[in-house]
Design goal:
The complex is a heterodimer of chains A (412) and B (78). By secondary structure, chain A is of the alpha+beta class. Chain A is 39% helix and 20% strand. Chain A is built from 15 helices and twelve strands. In chain A, the strands form three sheets. A five-stranded mixed beta sheet of chain A has the order 5-6-1-7-8. A four-stranded antiparallel beta sheet of chain A has the order 9-12-10-11. In chain A, helix 11 crosses helix 12. Chain A starts with a strand and ends in a 33-residue tail after the last helix. Chain B starts with a strand and ends with a strand. Chain B has a seven-stranded antiparallel beta sheet with strand order 3-2-1-7-6-5-4, with no helix packed on it. With 78 residues, chain B is mostly beta strands. Chain B contains no helices and seven strands. The radius of gyration of chain B is 12 Å and the shape is globular. Chains A and B meet through helix 6 of A and strand 4 of B.
Chain lengths: 412, 78
């Protein structure tokens, strides 16, 4: 029996939540944007009215305003969005336990078994939409199909508040005429390469010999071919939006470009502090430290290095990050964004190789950091600070709470 | 129509649910809630919010009362 997979996509999620809570802006063009003064000033989400003016996610605020005079710009409220994301998930849980989050506003649901109880995939999809709208005041588009890739395509085809069914009988008519770039994981660069070899639609991709695609894309070519033909059989894995963590990272775009080692030092400590705090919160330690540097011309590099042991101590992470930085940056360009990430994680209580000499010191450092966490929980993030951050000229921040949510990967 | 937060006196039952008993209107008047006839999660597009929605009978008339994050509100017609 073939599977029944739904993909549910909350329409204009951030903007919809803002419009729910602010009825007075509901009939006006609305864009949820990062803060302009700290240069995160891009459109994160827009409502349907703003969309008609051509406002798209990723526009700079000034760009969006010039496309759409009278645009209402609101700041994001991530805690609120997380709350809604969880409430929506609770609705899904009435129908299946196989729910896989894809970012904060999209989920796959495997309802194959539930169809005996609740009717066809389309009926379940319609019921979900009705409940989301009634209970939470926002809308969703739902795609219904027999694999994850087509279900996702379906949820993109009719918006807002609609169900699209793509069956084994009609997927050729419904999908194969669409541009290949509509398909998940065909980004601009893959699309360009496909165009180069004469493929522009999903149908053409499906019809191409897989060996030919492999020659151009490697293994990836066969995967694309599998996707286009509806052969994707990847399961819907139970996954909260808080996924099984592979790493913890934070990056910040600073109010002014970084120009010196000292600037980098300050920001690295800010980032390492928050990364370490989040590792501790999730009861994890990591061993690989990665840094991400984006320069003022928006090109970027990533470099990484290994620690001698797993850690959640911020000074160890920061020192390693700075060591990597010193090896990889020559200051031919100024820096706009800096990121620090720790991967290769294990749970904090797992046994590791201990060092004979500095173990007590490390234990004390770990205890110190836990105490800092306690103080910050009680008195706020800025109640305890590193001395180096006091001469920070505006670089200090609290990334744990000002954290940006990124979608997670399709493959695990 | 606006979102108006109101004071409520509620009963916490043994099974952990909350039953509103008396609601104090913004003008200071208090009303006994005769009966709660329905409880479900619902959005209020008029007031702008969502939460557990209590359908209450007050003096023979039906009124909705929402509970969101431990705050009670109504979609005031005033």
């Amino acid at each position: 029996m073939s599977r029944v997979i739904l993909h549910s996509d909350l329409n204009n999620f951030y903007a919809s939540v803002e419009c729910l809570y602010n009825p007075e802006i509901r009939d006006r063009p609305v864009a949820v944007c990062g803060s302009q003064s700290t240069r995160h000033g891009i459109v994160l989400a827009k409502n349907g009215i703003a969309k008609k003016f051509g406002v798209t996610a990723g526009d700079a605020v000034w760009e969006a305003r010039s496309k759409c005079p009278g645009l209402v710009v609101v700041r994001p409220n991530y805690m609120q969005y997380l709350k809604f994301s969880m409430l929506v998930r609770k609705i899904y849980e009435n129908y299946t336990n196989l729910i896989e989050a894809f970012g904060i506003d999209e989920n796959w649901l495997d309802v194959t078994e539930s169809t005996r109880l609740y009717g066809s995939g389309e009926q379940i999809a319609n019921e979900l939409r009705k409940r989301i709208q009634f209970e939470l005041g926002i809308t969703a588009s739902v795609g219904v199909s027999f694999n994850k890739v087509f279900a996702k395509l379906g949820s993109d085809m009719k918006k807002p508040d609609a169900t699209t069914v793509i069956s084994e009988e009609d997927y050729r008519e419904k999908i194969w005429g669409l541009p290949a770039s509509e398909m998940i994981y065909v980004g601009p660069s893959t699309r360009r390469k496909l165009t180069d070899i004469g493929i522009s639609t999903i149908g053409e991709l499906a019809g191409a010999p897989p060996r030919f695609l492999e020659r151009h894309f490697g293994q990836w070519g066969r995967t694309l071919w599998i996707f286009a033909n509806g052969y994707d059989d990847s399961p819907v894995t139970r996954l909260d939006f808080q996924p099984n963590i592979k790493g913890v990272g934070n990056s910040l775009t600073t109010p002014h470009d970084l120009r010196s080692d000292n600037d980098v030092k300050i920001l690295t400590y800010v980032l390492a502090d928050s990364v370490a705090e989040r590792l501790r919160r999730h009861h994890l330690k990591g061993r690989t430290v990665q840094i991400y540097i984006r320069s003022a011309d928006l090109s970027f590099i990533e470099r990484q290095g290994q620690l001698s042991h797993h850690t959640f101590v911020s000074s160890e992470i920061a020192e390693k990050a700075l060591e990597i930085f010193a090896q990889s940056w020559d200051w031919s360009k100024t820096i706009r964004t800096l990121g620090v990430r720790v991967t290769n994680v294990v749970t904090a209580d797992s046994c590791g190789q201990v060092s004979f000499f500095d173990d007590e010191k490390r234990l004390r450092r770990e205890q110190l950091e836990s105490s800092i966490d306690n103080i910050r929980t009680r008195f706020g993030h800025y109640s305890v600070q590193r001395a180096v951050l006091l001469k920070s000229n505006g670089l200090n921040a609290n990334p744990v709470e000002e954290n940006v949510i990124h979608p997670v990967s399709f493959f695990r | 129509m606006a979102k108006v937060f109101v004071e409520v006196i509620a009963k916490f039952t043994k099974d952990g649910s909350k039953v509103p008993l008396i609601v104090k209107w913004e003008d200071g008047r208090s009303f006994d809630i005769d009966r709660v006839t329905d409880v479900r999660r619902a959005a209020s597009l008029k007031a702008g919010g969502q939460g557990m929605r209590y359908r209450c009978r007050i003096n023979g008339k039906e009124t909705y009362l929402w509970l969101e994050d431990d705050k009670w509100f109504v979609d005031s017609k005033a």
